[in-house]
Amino acid sequence: MSNPDETRPDPKPGDDRDWSVVVEDGVAKTNEPVSSAVASPGAATRRHEPHEPPRTTLPEKLYEKRKAVHNKRIDGPFRRFKWFVMVVTLGIYWITPWLRWDRGPYAPDQAVLIDLANRRFYMFDIEIWPHEFYFVAGLLIMAGIGLFLVTSAVGRAWCGYACPQTVWTDLYQHVDRFIDGDRNARMRLDAAPWTAGKIARRAFKWSIYLAIAFATGGAWILYFADAPTLFRDFFTGDAAPIAYGTVLVLTATTFTLGGFMREQVCIYMCPWPRIQTAMLDEKSLIVTYKDWRGEPRGSVKKAAKNPDQFGDCIDCLQCVQVCPTGIDIREGPQIGCITCALCIDACDRVMKDIGRPRGLIDYATLEDCEREAAGETPRPVWKTLLHPRTIAYFLIWGSIGLAMLFALGARNHTDLTVSPDRNPPFMLMSDGSIRNSYTLKLRNMESRPREMEIAVEGLPGAMLWTDTIAREDASPTQRFMVDSDQIRTVRAYVMAPANTGPRDFSFRLTSLDEQREQDVVETGFSAPGGE
Q1: In degrees rounded to 5, what are phi and psi of residue 410?
Q2: What distance in Å separates the CA atoms of residue 501 and residue 183, rounded to the nearest whole number?
Q3: What segment(s) does the record annotate as region Disordered (predicted)?
């Protein structure tokens, strides 16, 4: 290679070419990282990064085109468990809005209802008010810690079985098999030219996709209003515009993500595969290919001729063909593995057919893999699950759950809020007495009207009346009727005798029913002489 300094011409204004690179006929004669501008796309080059082998050509595309995944039908314990989870989760999603729950004549009878208009959340016998949003926050925290617990114990089992993307993708893949046939038939159909028959088959299949997506979006809005009423209004054109917009968006996203993007959502869009690695260690159960047992690979015939030269893996590719994301588990842990364990079902069937022990691909920890490779006996599964991180997650998760159950059982269905007026803080009456004004909010959290009593305590000689009660009827206590699941706002006046100084006192709210629930709120009485 010639010295570039000998052939370098005088630089011209704006000429920023890298003269340390010699280019001959579009070929960069260097192994140093250089700009791809020295050659046109597709030209031969030896450019490479320090961690890469030398390249022979420049890449023409930055992204690889998606390769369709045609996973094969398989039967086994993990596949049957996926069927069970899919039926249960889809059943819960589509059936729950139609369940009824009797809460009395003053409350809705839908078992699970997010009543945004009245700011209530109903779940069977539980009713959550806006000021009790900490219960919802607690449920979300429990869900997050539960996800950490499952991941720490058995890897991405949530992704493999219960994630909505997985459930709907699995459903769509069963539609593919029903319409187009199993793996080989689908591959032939994809490669076939677009004939009238293929167009008709695709239109039929995509219509089923669309129907499932529409049912998905339609079921979601039923959680936010009375399901039978909204269902009727939706198809008669009387529903709110937001209902139609929500169904349209959810139908489009379900149709696209579940029908056409599938494994791309898990690999590229979902952040969880990248987060879950922080919750895995050498004691976590994950789907593992036992390479010390399977390698080197060879067919049954080769292994029969040379039994000591080949492992148990016969390179049948069944584990790859059944994978819903199209990965090869034999390449080790990877971001595309959702731990559905279908490869275990496929491999165990092959091992049974060729007369070799199951478990070439199996749930195992890295520690147990090392033990088994060394000829030792792996630990039982229950011992594997009881490691410190899993126990810690479970204790935290259980503690939050017990605390929420206790709070639900001990909560009061009567609540009082007191807001004193600040301008003016007090008024001097003609007889020398002192009056303060307050805004009281009486909350009835029962699904029936209740009579409640407000009493003034800690302020000797004080009298109470309101905008609807004449001053002549003032007394230390007053009674009010509060409708079911309502907050009644009361403008109240408290008058104390002359010469009463600033001091603290309390309002006591008592429900006048068999429960006799009470709520006491301490507030201040303003008077002359206070700071």
Answers
A1: -100, 0
A2: 87
A3: 24-57
Query: Residue 117: helix, strand or coil by DSSP?
Result: coil
Q: Which residues of 78-117 are buried (b: 16+ CB within 10 A; e: fewer)?
A: bbeebeebbeebbeebeebbeeeeebeeebbebbbbebee
| Cβ-based neighbour number of residue 325 at 10 Å | 20
Task: Pull the structure tokens for residue 223.
Answer: 């959680």
Reduce the DSSP state of residue 398 to 3 states and report it: helix
- The CA-based angle 448-450-454, given to 5 degrees, is 155
Determine the residue type at 363. Y
DSSP sequence for 183-211: HHHHHHHHHS---HHHHHHHHHHHHHHHH
* Cβ within 8 Å of residue 252, ≥6 positions away: 213
- Identify whether the C-beta of residue 266 lies closer than 8 Å to the C-beta of residue 165: yes
Give which of 274, 525, 263 is closest to 418, Cα–Cα: 525
- Cα separations in angstroms, 217 against 2, 115, 427, 470: 68, 18, 59, 55
Rg from Cα positions in the chain: 36
Copy the structure tokens of residue 492: 């109240």
259 CB neighbour count, 10 Å cutoff = 21
Per-residue model confidence as pLDDT tens digits over 406-459: 888 778 888 899 999 888 888 888 888 999 999 999 988 887 889 999 999 999
HEC letters along 304-329: HHCCCCCCCCCCCCHHHHCCCCCCCH
Cα 440 from Cα 521, distance rounded (Å): 10
C-alpha span between 476 and 459 (Å, rounded): 10
- 5-14, 85-94, 346-355, range with the lowest pLDDT: 5-14
pLDDT tens sequence across 185-239: 999 999 999 999 999 999 999 999 999 999 999 999 999 999 999 999 999 999 9
Indicate the length of the chain as a whole number: 531
pTM of the full predicted structure? Answer: 0.76
pLDDT in tens, 317-376: 999 999 999 889 988 888 888 889 999 999 999 999 988 899 899 988 888 888 888 888
Helix, strand and coil in the chain, % to nearest 5: 45, 20, 40
Residue 168, CA distances (Å) to 216, 325, 499 in order: 9, 14, 74
Phi, then psi, of 340 in degrees rounded to 5 = -80, -20
- Backbone φ and ψ for 521, nearest 5 degrees, come out as -125, 125
